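G., the chain you wanted modeled:
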Amino acid sequence: MLPAMPAAARPRQATSVLLQFGRVAAMGTVAALILIAGVWASWGTAQHVLLTKGREQGTVDVTECGEGSCSGPYAPVSAGSRERGRVVIEDSVAVAEGRTYSVVVKPGSDEVVRSGPAGMLYAWVPLGGALLLASVVVAGGLRRTRAAWAMAGAGVALLTAAFLAV
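Predicted structure as tokens:
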């Protein structure tokens, strides 16, 4: 039979359990919010690249860049798409003046986003960063090192694939 625990030790155990539960709940919430924010930031562009059915698809020949955006003439590829003299694409690492890119037109506008494998990977870059950030929270706050390494590996793989594709 085990010796009885002193009465003074019982409240410390309860406090320790409550503090541990609070830490896990708080860090789990923070990690979840980081991941949700990464998906939310990515989805703004990714929805146009992933859900292309019924959207205008074509190519843009980038002729001019400045003030955070590039522009050029749009040549349609999909049925129902119309030619445009000028469309706007975000000026980023993924776009260079003088090059031609396959794009999808955002509905109701003259803005386009890159399509194809490079556009899809580039759209999910915010999620890759969120995976890296959340992995630190999972490792330190939740003390789940295997899950943290898996998240970090997925984030690095996504960012590396996007870098190589762009």
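Residues 56 and 79 are 8 Å apart (CA to CA).

Shout if anything looks off.
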